[in-house]
Amino acid sequence: MEMAKHNRWRVPGKYGARWVMVLMALAFLAFAAFLVARASFVARNGQRYFIIDDDELISLRYAWNLAHGHGLVWNPGERVEGFTDLLWTLYASAWAVVIPRRLLPLVMQVSGMALLLGQAAVFARIVRAMYAERGRTTPWMECAAFALPLAFYPLVYWSVQGMEVCLVGFLFSLAVLYYIRCRWVACAVALGLGFWTRPDVAVPAALIMGMAGIDALRDRRLLGQWLTSCGVLAGMVATVFILRRLYYGQTWPNTYVLKMQGLSLMDRITMNGIGYIMPFLRENVLPLGIALAGIVLAWSWRRILFAAIVLSMIAYSVVVGGDTLPYWRFIAPFAPFLGLI
Fold first, then answer.
1. Rounded to an integer, what distance in angstroms lies between the CA atom of residue 257 and that of residue 254?
2. What is the structure's pLDDT at 12?
3. Which of 15, 120, 156, 184 lies at a 20 to 30 A Cα distance from 268?
4. How far is CA 55 from CA 50, 151, 165, 292, 324, in A?
């Protein structure tokens, strides 16, 4: 045992790879701090204010009202669900209890940076887990995986903006890690929390649980764990619908009602969905092509899953008619999975 422990610490390149990851993290933090500082300003009262996206400011207003006894509302006394990021809003409300309103956007921006670094660290662990299945240790491959979320600018942009995108990316990556390690109940909890953060996480979550079901059919010993994890995830999804019905008197999110009802599927696709997604496909043709080549040259269920995660969110973006905001926030948390192929 002592010999094995000694050899583990002598893996070639282990410490070099770790230092590179530290340097990448520091470079990201420096770049993110520059973006935050450039977007802030000093008002006439001599205090600095921090600018974030309008959608996040909506969530922060709900969070502020909740923290100060008015409920999870835009205006006191009017119960309308005007946000799509329940868990992120509740997180902001916890901060709103103890910090001034002026600094709340900054706290969310710093939280976004931390969560993006967390997703990068989880990506490194995913690669470690996959190579451990083959009895190998690959510090430099872990280093490369660490860089994937930090290298995708749309994900960096939304994280520095303090949007819920960073929490979605972290939770879903954690779910994938738990899936690979066959800790499917923990995977279901992470997916459920992701759904609480943004409902569209249901799309790739179904793929993860479906793939786990295929694994359970191959090894019947895993069937009980899979059924339990499906129950956990279904319960967490149902909880959101029940609470919404009880608090707001609606079954579906207000944003779903405004965007999806009264407009046919074909109109959503042709009027904005295709036009919205085409720039993404053009700008990412190289990683998409490399990922496709990786699947063709070395087919595996794991690679198929990673590709399906990204493709499902591309299709989702088209079906819902795109987004009013830039940088593909529906796809951004999942796009780094192309690099894992």
1. 5
2. 53
3. 156
4. 15, 24, 12, 34, 10
Task: Give the single-character DSSP code of 272.
Answer: I
Q: What CA–CA distance (Å, rounded) separates 251 from 234?
A: 16
Q: Does the model's pTM come out above 0.85? A: yes
How far apart CA 34 and CA 57 sit, in angstroms, is 21
CA distance from start to end of the chain: 34
Amino acid at 33: A
Instruction: Quote the pLDDT of residue 4.
Output: 44
Angle at 89 (CA atoms; ends 330, 64), nearest 5 degrees? 140
Distances (CA, A) of 292 to 286, 289, 313, 318, 324: 10, 5, 16, 20, 29
- As beta bridge partners, residue 49 has 41
Angle at which helices 184-197 and 223-248 cross, to 10°: 20
Give the Cα separation of 80 and 119 in Å (integer).
32
